[in-house]
Amino acid sequence: MNSLSKSLVLLMCFFVFTLSGCGKKAENNKVEHERIVIVQKKPDLVVLPYTGKISPAQVVAVTCPEEGTVSKINFKYGQEVNKGQFLLALNSVKLESDFHENVSNFLKAKDRYLISLVSFDGSKELYKEKVISQQEFSNEKSQHENNELAYIDAKFKLEKILENVPGFDKSIEKLNLQDIKRIEHIFSTSLEDLRISASAAGIVLYPVQVKADDGTGELVVGSEVKKGQSLLSIGDMSSISVDFNISETDINRVKEGLSVTVSTSGAHGTTLTGHVKSVAVQAKISRGVSDVATFPATAIVEKITSEQQAHLRVGMSAKVMVKIPGKTEMMVPISAIHAERGKRWVIVVDKGGKHLKREVRTGRTTTSDVIITEGLEAGEKIIVHDVAVIDDEMDEDD
After folding, report:
1. What phi-psi label fits residue 215: left (phi over 0), alpha (psi between -120 and 50 degrees) or beta?
2. Residue 80: Cβ within 10 Å count
3. CA-to-CA distance for 62 and 232, rounded, in angstroms?
4. Is residue 26 classed as helix, strand or coil in its secondary structure?
């Protein structure tokens, strides 16, 4: 054999020994931990994953009491506010006009009512003495009732206006047409700033938009608003909700009241427990090309601690894991199952402590367990081998 052939043989032997050593090293790095577990029946739990957005469970809308223009803003979106805190002011020409008109109508209606009341009292006495006819009395009574209804209507309208007028209370209703000086003061009052305060404590959010053309959106100084328009929303983050969509293949499996876990990567691993609050019975209108219908659903977490609130933000993406319990099954850890020639078996520990090999039949596998359909009974003990890989380099460093 020449020198070149000898070199090739030696090189091949080197590689064989090296690979053999690596294989042994990898096998040596695997360490089995033997433990005994008791066979138990567990619910065959199915977990369905969904995604959605976090929002406050309780949202209060702040609506515009009168048509006008935003003159002052005392908040920022996403800011926490207290109940009663001043939020913004409106310049409402219409409010001032309506206020003056309703005061005038109220005073006139009240004056007519008081005059007719005196007149009607006199007519009742005249009718008793048969000085006037029944027809005349009936006409007088009908006129008085009309004046009374007009007064009540004017009073109601004035009360509604006074709810939005700063600096005035309902003592204004005591006014008569004879109170000239007070009336002049009222009509000389300019109602340029209508103050709007927070109706609840929470976080200021963009308004809940009902219609695309209703003018809702971010408010700035100079924004024109309409009566009844949603100006903004206030959300309470002491409880949260997550909206998600269920495919038609799973819609009959997800029910109201099922337990869920909610987590988000932005909340530093915070996992919350809640339940399914609602499941729609009508599919969501889809503009995509997919033929699979989806149904809107909402999960709710009812109690959020102040510490958890510090990590949660409105609009965060969230994972919703819906837990669907099935029937109770006999389950063992996956690492307890051994396979050989198409058969599966486990090692059972009998009452005397002996290890016995026993064949079993298996069913569906979960993320950690295997369902046993035949071969084991609840309460029996079996051997589980947990395999761990040890890094030699880490050991050397230690």
Report:
1. left
2. 13
3. 5
4. helix
Mean pLDDT computed over 270-299? 84
Q: Tokens 């359909």 belong to which residue?
A: 373
Query: How many other C-beta atoms are found inside a 10 Å radius of the C-beta of residue 56?
Result: 21
Least confident of 16-25, 153-162, 171-180: 16-25
CB atoms within 10 A of CB 396: 7
pLDDT value, residue 49:
92
Short-list 32, 30, 37, CA closest to 385: 32
330: tokens are 């006999």
Tokens of 129: 């003495």
Please tell me the chain's helix, strand, coil percentages from 3-state DSSP, rounded to the nearest 5. Answer: 30, 35, 35
| Sequence-separated (6 or more) residues with CB below 8 Å from residue 274 | 259, 260, 261, 262, 299, 300, 301, 302
Of 250, 259, 242, 241, nearest to 295 by C-alpha is 250
What average pLDDT score do residues 102-114 get?
A: 89
Angle in degrees, CA 261, 254, 259, rounded to 5: 30
pTM for this prediction = 0.56
